[in-house]
Structure formats: C-alpha cells, structure tokens
Design a protein that fits this description.
By secondary structure, the chain is mostly beta strands. The chain has no helices and 32 strands. The strands form four sheets. An eleven-stranded parallel β-sheet has the order 2-5-8-11-14-17-20-23-26-29-31, with no helix packed on it. The protein has a nine-stranded parallel β-sheet with strand order 3-6-9-12-15-18-21-24-27, with no helix packed on it. A nine-stranded parallel β-sheet has the order 10-13-16-19-22-25-28-30-32, with no helix packed on it. The protein starts with a strand and ends with a strand.
C-alpha cells in the first residue's frame, strides 16, 4: 500500500478515532494509492494519485465523512476513487479522474448521503461513475466522457439525483439503470468472498431494483443511449440531447421519459416481459421512432 489509515480490526471501530488532512501530496507507484479502514472525516485535497497498481483512492469500511476535492486521480490500474461499505456523508468534488483501469468513481454498499459534484471523469476503461446499493446520492455538474458507460446506477440504489451533467462519447450507454445481479464480474471481482454472492453485483439490503431517480437538466453532447432495466419511479425531464438518442426500457414501472429536448432522432424501445409489470409515460417530439414489445 501507499498511504494507509486504519483501525486494527472491526471491534475497534466504535472506540478508535482516526481523522485528519492529507493535502498537496503525490502518491504514485504503490500497490494502492490511499486506503482507509474506519478513518472518519478525512479531508483529502489537492493531491496527485497516479500510476498505482490497484485503486487510486479507496476509503473503505466505515470511513464516513470523507471529503475528496481538487485531486488528480489518473492512470491507476484499478478504480480511480472508490468509497465502499458504509462510507456515507462524503463529498467527491472538483477532481480529475482520468484513464484508470477500472471505473472512474465508485460509490458502493451503503455509502449514503454522498455528493459527486463537478468532477471530470474521462477515459476510464470501465464506467465513469457507478452507484451501487447506496441511497440519497447527488450526481451533479460532472463532465463524463469517453468511458464504457457514462453513469451506472444498480443493485438497489435509491433516491438518486442526476442533474446538470455533461455526457459525451461514452462507448456503450450514457446512462444505465440495472437491478439485482449484473452479469459482469470485471469491476472488482476480488470482493467475492468465496460464496455465490459477489459484492459488486447484487444488493444485500433490498430486492435489487433501482428506485426513485430524477434525471434532470443534463446535456448529452453526442449520440446517447439511456437504458432502464427493472427500475421504478424514474423521471427524465428537461434534458438536452444534441444528437440522436435512444431510450431503452424493460420491466420498469412509473418511468417518465421526455425527449422533447432532442435535436436529432429520438427512439423509444419499450418492452415488458410476460410476468413483469411495466408502465411508461413518454413525451416524444415529432418524428420519433417507437417500438413496444411484450414477450417472455
């Protein structure tokens, strides 16, 4: 490891207080750049974290109140910034998270009440920003470009505000909402604990559906794909689409899609499986393409 702050073991979490500032530092060419376990209210600002073998910045179990601002987190072989397992009440803002070997920013496993604001998240091998099994998250004012998927919400995350972001040139989807299991173990498969559960791929705390998402006043500056799979209570409104956009929805209830802010062609692909409920409300501009399917 590079820089590590941790309590000795889980039994010490209620009794030991580790806190402080880390600033104006270079953390490079280590196994992992920064790691914490039970370190609370850490302020991590104006640092360069680069070329580490695994994660760049990794506040872990019960490292709540983390503030990460104005850092450059680049070219690490794992995820750039990951806050994982009860690291709530945190702020990830004004960072450049570029060229990392997994995801750009990951909010994971009950890291609730967290702000992800005004970051540049670009050219990461997997997804730009990932919200996993966490609640009351604000994703606002970020530039999210040239990742695999721009923003991925999944595994039971709820009450997510996606506002005033700029999405451009993400390779697969600009934004994707997925439930429960995800047939990918390529993000952080070292979370597997030897059982069939993989911490990256399923919620341990709910049925896995993403619920309560507002997608508002974002700019999609290139061809965009938005995917909604088995989600609920989702409202996409007031967004600007500067090129063609495709909305793909399956088995999603109370989904409202407003495509009137599109410059190019708008396509709606709406599907309901035989045994799953679905309800869609759309506001298509003239000339939109609509496909509705019901099947197995």
């Amino acid at each position: 490891y590079g820089l590590t702050l941790k309590v000795r073991d889980e039994q010490n979490l209620p009794h030991v207080a580790i806190t402080g500032w880390i600033r104006n530092s270079r953390i490079e060419h280590n196994y992992r750049g920064y790691y914490s376990y039970g370190a609370r209210d850490i302020t991590f600002i104006d640092n360069i974290v680069a070329f580490n073998h695994d994660y760049g910045v990794d506040p872990h179990d019960d490292s709540s109140g983390f503030i990460g601002r104005r850092n450059t987190v680049a070219f690490n072989r794992g995820t750039g910034i990951a806050i994982s397992r009860r690291c709530g009440d945190s702020v990830i803002a004004d960072n450049h998270v570029i060229g990392n070997g997994a995801n750009g920013i990951l909010i994971h496993d009950l890291s609730n009440n967290t702000l992800v604001h005004d970051n540049v998240v670009a050219s990461n091998r997997l997804d730009g920003i990932v919200i996993h099994d966490s609640h009351a998250i604000s994703v606002q004012g970020n530039v999210i470009r040239n990742n695999r998927n721009g923003l991925r919400l999944f595994a039971g995350s709820t009450l997510i505000a996606v506002q005033e972001n700029n999405f451009r040139d993400n390779r697969n989807a600009s934004l994707i909402l997925l439930a429960g299991w995800l047939d990918q173990a390529d993000d952080l498969d070292d979370y597997s604990d030897g059982t069939s559960w993989n911490g990256q791929n399923i919620s341990r705390h709910s049925d896995g559906r993403v619920r309560g998402v507002i997608i508002e006043n974002n700019i999609f500056a290139s061809r965009a794909t938005l995917i909604f799979d088995n989600a609920a209570f989702v409202n996409a409104r007031g967004n600007r689409f500067l090129a063609n956009v495709t909305f793909t929805a399956q088995d999603t209830t109370d989904l409202s899609l407003d495509g009137t802010g599109a410059v190019g062609t708008v396509s709606y692909r709406l599907r309901r499986s035989r045994h799953e409920p679905a309800s869609y409300s759309i506001a298509p501009p003239p000339g939109s393409l609509l496909s509705v399917m019901s099947g197995d």
